[in-house]
Amino acid sequence: MPFIDHNEWANKATGGNAALVDIEDGRDLSPTFKVFVIDDGEEIELKRNITDHIMGIEIELTSNLVSKCTIEIENRGGAFSDSGVFAPGTDLDIYLGYGDFTKKIGRWEVIRFLPQFSESGIETLTIEGYDLAHRMITRKTEVVGGDAKKPKKGKEGGKQWGNDKNPLTIGDIVEEIAARYGAKAHVDDATKDIEEAFVQKKGTSDFEVLMNLARIHGLDFWVNHDSFPGAGWVVHMTDAAMTVRSATQYTFTYGGPQATMLSCELEFGLPDTPSEVKAWVWDPNGNNNSGDWAEIFEEETKEGKKQKKQFKKGYFSEYWNADEITEDPDDSDQEVSMTKFRLAVGGYAVDVLTKPFKDQKTAKQYLARWFNERKNSFISAKVRLPGVETLNVGQKHQLAGIGRRFTGTYFISDVFHSFDENGFVTEFQARKVVEPVPSDVSELIDAGPFPKANQ
Q: I want to staple 162 with a disulfide (CB 3.0 to 4.6 A). Which of 5, 56, 168, 404 is the partner?
C-alpha cells in the first residue's frame, strides 16, 4: 500500500464546514445524520423506517486508543432485536451534518448488540462499533523470532523489526503493519525516516507496537476511515509539530458576537514554552565530602571536565535503589548515585529523579525521550461547541477569546460527537504543541533546542 501524501491529507482532512457557515447564506442548519451499511464494499443507506427510531448517536475519535461509535435505538416490542441490519461484524458508516450537507465521520465494525428492557417500560437497543484499531489489538504476533528469511531463535519468539546494523524506519514499520489490514500509511516526512530496531515479542499486538513507537518519539498515532476519494482505512503516525506548520483551519472564539465556543476548560502543567533544561548528578564526594548535586553537560568548564572523568570511570552507573531516595531530592545527606534533571519555564520548574547514567550521551538521550513523551500535556483545552461535523483527530485550529496566555494554535487529539433529542454537539480535547527535543542533541543548557517564550 502506498503512503498517503502528508500535505494532501492535511488539505483534505477538513473540507467544507456547514456548522460555521453564516446563516445568511440560506443554508439549512437543521442537524441531521445518515447511517450506511457496507455490503460488498458498497454503502447502502438505511431507510427512514429504521433511522426514525434512532434516539442518539455518540462517536469518540481518539489518538493512541480505539475509536468507538454507539447508536441507541428505540426498540418497542423488540422490533429490532431480531434484525440482521446491525448484526456483529457488520460495517457501518456514520454521516453527520446540517440540512443537505453531511460528512462521513468514520466507519465502525459492530461488536456489541445489546437489547435492553427496563422496569420503566423503555425498550432500547444499543449498538457498539469500533474502528480498525480493535482488529490490530486482537491480532497477536505468533511468528517465531526473526524475519521470514533469517529467523532468530529466542525463548519468547517474535518478529524482528530490523537490527542495530540495519534498522528499519518508522515509515517502513507503519507501512508494513497498515498493509496487513488493507490500510494506507500516513506518516509525515520528518517521522518517516526515524530509524528503529526491536523485537515484537510473541503475543504482542500490532497496535501495541505502534502505540509504543508513538509514546517513545512523542508522536500521535490513530486510525480512521477517511472520506476523501481513494483514502479508505488510514494508519496515521505523525508529529503534531509538523501539523502546526501547516495552515490554520478554523478559529473558535469564546464570547462576543462572533462566539463559536459554548465552553472551554483549560489546564497547564507548565506555562508557555520550555526554554531551559538542566541536569545534575548526585556526587557523594561533593561539598566537602558531605554530598551535593553536580551540574552536568558543561564539559568545557573545569568542573565539567572533572565530571567527564567521573563518567568515564563509570562512577554514575552504580546500582540505584529507589527505596534509598529521601522525599526531598535536595537533601544534602543523600548518599546514593542518581541523576536529577529540571525542566524550567518562566520561573516554574519540574524536577525529575531517575537512575544514574553510564555516560553523558545516554543521559541526554534519556532527557530528550522523557520530554518527548510528556510534551503533549503542558497546555491542554477541552472545548464544547455546536456540532462541527468536519472536526477530527490530527487537525489544528485556533482558540481565541480565552486570554493572551492560552489564545493560539491547538492540535486536536480527541473528538466527541453527540447527536440526540437535544441536538448536535461536538466536544474536543486539544493541546498547544511544543517542539520535540532531538534525541542526539549536543547541548541541553540555556541556548538549547527550546525556543524562548514570546520570541
A: 168
